[in-house]
Amino acid sequence: MFDNLMSRRLILRQSACGFGAVAANALLGSTFAVPAANGGLVGTHHAPKAKRIIFLFMFGGVSQVDSFDYKPALNQRHGELLTFNDARQLAKTGKATEQKLLASPWKFKQYGQSGHWASELFPGTAEHIDDLCLLHGMHTEGVAHGPATLFLHSGSTNMTRPSMGSWVNYALGSENENLPGFVSITPKAPGGPRNYGAAFLPPKFQGTRLVSTSAEQFAIENLTRDDLPISEVAKQVDVLKRLNRIQLDRRSTYDSELEAALESYELAWKMQRMAPEILDLSTETKATLNMYGIDDPVTKDYGQKCLLARRLCESGVRFIEVNYGSDSGNWDQHSDLPKHADHAKAVDRPIAGLLTDLKQRGLLDDTIVWWGGEFGRTPYSEGKGTGRDHNPGGFTVWLAGGGIKSGFAYGKTDELGFAGIDERVHMHDLHATLLHQLGLDHKRLTYKHAGRDFRLTDVHGRVVQDIIA
Amino acid sequence: MSLFSRNVGHCAILILLISLAFLDEAKLFGQSSANIDIDKQNRFEKWVRPTLNQHCLPCHSRETESNGGLVLDSRYGWEKGGDSGRAIVPGSSEESLLIKAIRFDHPKLQMPPDKKLPSDLVALMEAWVNDGAFDPREDREPMDQTASTLQQISVKEYWSYQPLRTANFTYASIDGFVDQKLSEMEIHAAPLAQRRDQVRKLYLDLTGLPPSPETIQTMLSSSDFESDYHELAQRLLGTPQYGESMARRWMDVVRYAESVTLRGLVFKEAWRYRDYVITAYNQDRSFDQMIREQIAGDLLKSDDPNDRYLQLVATTFMAMGDTNFEKQDKQQLEMDYVDEQLDVIGQAFLGQTIGCARCHDHKFDPIPTRDYYAMAGILKSAVALRHSNVSNWIDLPLPLGLDEEKRFVDLETQLKTLTKELATKKKQLAAKPKKEGESDGPDLAKEKDLKQLADEVKQMESNQKKLQAQVDLRPRYLTIVEESPPKDIPVHIRGDVHNLSEVVPRGFLSALTDDQKTAIPTGASGRLEMSKWISAPENPLTARVYANRVWSWMMGQGLVESVNNFGTTGTTPSNPDLLDWLATELIRSGWSTKHLIRLIVHSDAYRRKVVAADDRVLQIDPDNRFYWRGHQRRLTAEELRDAMLQASGELDLAMGGSLMVETKSDVNYKHSSQRRSVYHPLFRNSLPELLGSFDFPSTGMSVGQRSRSTVSTQALVLMNSDWVRARAKAMASRLRSESETQDPTIWIERAFQLCFQRPPNLVELETCLEFFQSNLDSTNPHSLEKLTHSLFASIDFRYLE
Question: Is A192 in contact with B323 (Cβ distance < 8 A)?
Fold first, then answer.
């Protein structure tokens, strides 16, 4: 702890990673190997195809049969009663139940060169169909939002485990020392902090929450203060720094941890001045704002978040989650399926804008955009009513960029869109594949806790080679 | 295929067709036995081998993986089978798990996992099995089944499973053991820290609060520091803040929280457990008793109502996990619940990672899966959940004095009667009015009567609400309930609740159990026996784990650094004799925590100065595992928060009770009290200010040692958070109101005393004065506020010397 001062300071600087982690090596001791050259803690296991992930989280569960998984048979057989292994009933009673098929109220058509189908809910996204890789055979764990949302984020429906962003942050760190490596934009889903938490990984790998402070502004908590002009804050920071230096010199011994504490102030102060710029959307051109739908009150909110995601991604953040949906409004249409249209309207133009923007900036090459919910919805109506219940057994997720095949569809559900039957991809598999693209082997990305090595994918998961370009 | 019923028919027909096709093929090849062999050989090579190679072996062979313990690269492999049993029964596709899996019949057993094989291949495989499962592949060496057992026998020799050494120690004091190690290694111990630093550390360690400037002054001028120091330690052990500070440490270990993350559901009564722990530490309740109370307090007995109260609320320990109550597979939920309990019990008391044995025999420690389910059976024999879509936890009414009990019973009876009557009236109201004169009851066809009835219902509903509110006032506690009769449960293969194996009799860890002594009486669940087995002085783990824990709380790190893991994947003790001596002292003193703490804080090892190592020592003991110097102590999140409140003069030292403002969900909860941090509702979705940023542990698991991070988010919080600014402001007004003159020098000196319990040195004073001057007007209230704020944020506030 107290050896050569210069070399220690050097290590401190070099090991800076994550959200102002200034002394990883010194503080975490034996937990880690020597920091990798790229500033990350583990580094990559193989050459990466992607550097970062933007996850567009559609909380509540988008219906696959109303969005991207076209099922003409469902429309033809609307109203028929059939027996299904409904996931909720199965979990509760172990029995199959009779359900009434519900046709999609939306029209589908084919788009692009690839000719994949999309419904009229997503006209904007559909224009990018040749950039997407549609995974129609997704399946996951958890029938209720809580468990499934946790599973989506952390690979476990019940235990407290690190979220995927934290694993990535732990492995790779941030590309920008003024910014955190993992940001979740206005997370509101059940599971709360666990969805972006570090669990047993060191706390610095937890996601940083962006909160909205007004209709136009987003902020990292405590990043700034509004009671003083910045010139006054600077004066105070100056006296603090001087006092810190005197206090450090008063002590008879050199201590790397105290040195790190001092550095943390330098870094915080830098961040305080730099980060707000990145979060400030007012410098964007009108054309860009319009592209994201920020000019329209319906799309403004999600548009801003998508634009923020692009700015964060450009600035070197590794994992950005752009949340859509809260307790009061999300994709969870148990009744009143037509409400899906409101949600689609709120996100479609922003997502299309994001894809266009990433592409024209060349960012889509090494950024994976991941779109999806915690599960899908049933092709039959819930309780024979006007909505659809949760369906973890078969649903659609799409990916774009980052070395994933484009204009490609993989996997399928049965003719009614209920269960994945072919080229199925489990959520563990998706996690494994995403890590793989980042240069990480999901079996080797481990952390020792409570006597054993833990992984995001537990003892499961396989890399879906078929979707890799 | 299991999708909907019609398809099943299709598939069956398909299978039939393919089987027929095979019969035809067989006919073509003729009937002689030699030909049949060739036929079988052909089929195997043409269809079966490629299918196995392509679809099964990637996850089930010796070269790749043996998922589920199953390898399919030879007859031996499938005959032996995996965790779920034999994979293939030649001649019977119906009894063959492999066929079941590739048929995708069972929602939990579907192979290959990504995609069902084409139906014709499935049919071919079925036919192959039905036809005797001819497999010409070379039988491989059977896998060595004895290896793990052998390893486990030797693991039992591991130090932590050895009986505690209880006599013939060379020394009778901590320093004896420590100094001996140091002299063996030729390391010179650092001198004792300065008086001021010793006193500050003692205060923080024993109460979680810094001392007052006056206390420091008295101690600095003491003519007999040794005896005054001892006296001070004794006095601090007697303050109520001692229990609060110790309780907070234990609360990390038991993942204490007052809500669950999902839906932010609130445990309204969990605070009683926190108060139990505080009381227990303040009373110096023997720790073995605390173990029994936390695991099985409900099954203990006491005639003393206070004692009974403590026993009952202690069991909240078992029910505080961050449970996912809305998990729909309730069988799975129950086993997850038990798993979480076992995990905490194992780590908190035994330093064992029992959870590792849920799916397979523990890979490193002598804990076979059977042991896991033996203990799980005990816990499963208690009810912790009442199921509905979102299952409910159990909270029970606390026993009351006779009069109070009667009052509540009466209220409940009234409520019951009223509810029943109300239901009848509502039914009448809802019923279609009959023709005039037809009804026996009130004549509902008459508008007047109808209105009267509606009014009556309204009135009754309001009464019901009031009564309910009164009934709700009855104090309750969070707990689990013993179910009878207790049940043994089967081993769950790979931890899967839907894949069960042999039933295991309830019991404890076999590596540490003398069966004769620990037999569970008929009719008992074994939970009480488990608590006794854990808390027995003969258990080699428990006393060691707790003595080490207390040591780590005072010394900054454990003699065994992995305080929650005494298994073979943990670390070994840096001073085994000292550890055993401490454990023995713990037991000898009647499991007195205060006794251990007294021994520790009196020792020189505890009181040493924090110094730098020279190059030689840096080679031998860079991490101070042998305690040759002081440990760099810094304030925990709660201590930081409490210290700011103390310096600003706002700290409210009231004890106990719930601060919780009634709320349905813990999300966005606003904490507003200026009580000590330990008393704030510990909400998993809304931690009190500062806590989240300063290494407060995850409340989803047992934490023995908090992380120690230094990151810029902490700096941002200290510089910018509203809460810290408000404390700085309060401290500024305190300084102004306390001093008669408006002299910045006096303020600065007092501020340093309140924050660091020392005067500023000349440079510091000058720097601060300069700051005032640069702000032009030293009477500007903001200047002082900015200064106090800077002191809070400075390193001396957070790091002891």
Answer: no
B309 inside domain: yes
Number of domains in chain B: 5
If DSSP codes are grouped into helix, strand and coil, which group holds residue A391?
strand
Architecture field, domain A43-221+280-467: 3-Layer(aba) Sandwich (3.40)
- By the CB < 8 Å criterion, does A27 face chain B? yes
Contact map slice: A 247-276 vs B, CB within 8 A: 247-248, 250-255, 257-258, 260-262, 264-265, 267-269, 271-272
Rounded mean pLDDT of B513-531?
A: 83
Q: Using a CB–CB cutoff of 8 Å, tell me whether B611 touches chain A.
A: yes
* CA-based max dimension of chain A: 83
Q: Tell whether B625 is within 8 A of chain A (Cβ).
A: no
Chain A contacts in chain B segment 459-498 (CB below 8 A):
none
Task: Note whether B373 and B429 are same-domain residues.
Answer: no
B237 lies in a domain? Answer: no
Regarding whether B422 and B302 lie in a shared domain, the answer is no
- Residues from chain A that touch B774, judged by Cβ atoms under 8 A, are 235
Residues in chain B closer than 8 A to A223 (CB atoms): 716, 720
Size of interface A-B (CB pairs under 8 A): 266
Using the Cβ of B261 and the Cβ atoms of chain A, whether some distance falls under 8 Å is answered with: yes
Residues B21 and B119 in one domain: yes
Give the residue numbers spanning the domain of B310.
286-393+485-535
A223 interface with B at CB cutoff 8 Å: yes
Q: Is A308 helix (H, G, I), strand (E, B) or coil?
A: helix
CA B214 to chain centre: 40
Inform me whether the C-beta atom of residue A32 falls under 8 Å from chain B C-beta atoms: no
Report the C-alpha gap between B602 and A469 in whole angstroms.
67
The answer to whether the Cβ–Cβ distance between B695 and A203 falls below 8 Å is yes
The answer, for B585 touching chain A at a CB cutoff of 8 Å, is no
A133/B14 Cα distance (integer angstroms): 33
Contacts of B214 (CB under 8 A, 6+ apart): none
Same-domain pairing of B423 and B491: no
Contact B710 A193 (CB under 8 A): no
Together in a domain, B756 and B607? no
Q: Is B531 in the same domain as B566? A: no
pLDDT string in tens for chain A (469-residue length): 333 333 333 333 333 333 333 333 323 322 222 333 333 466 889 999 999 999 999 999 999 999 999 999 999 999 999 999 888 888 878 788 999 999 999 999 999 999 999 999 999 999 999 999 999 999 999 998 988 999 999 999 878 899 999 999 999 988 887 888 999 999 988 778 889 988 888 877 889 989 988 888 899 889 988 888 888 899 899 999 999 999 999 887 777 788 888 888 988 998 898 889 999 999 999 999 999 999 999 999 999 999 999 999 999 999 999 999 987 789 999 999 999 999 999 999 999 999 999 999 999 999 999 999 999 999 999 888 899 999 999 999 999 999 999 999 999 999 999 999 999 999 999 999 999 999 999 999 999 887 778 999 998 999 999 999 9
Nearest chain B CA: its distance from A163 CA (Å): 13
Q: Does residue B410 sit in the same domain as residue B459?
A: yes
- Taking contacts as CB-CB distances below 8 angstroms, the residues of chain A near B611 are 252-253
Residue B312 included in any domain: yes
In a 3-state reduction of DSSP, which class is residue B506? Answer: coil
Same domain (yes/no): B347, B424: no
End residue of a domain, out of B83, B112, B130: B130
Q: Does B172 reside within a domain?
A: yes
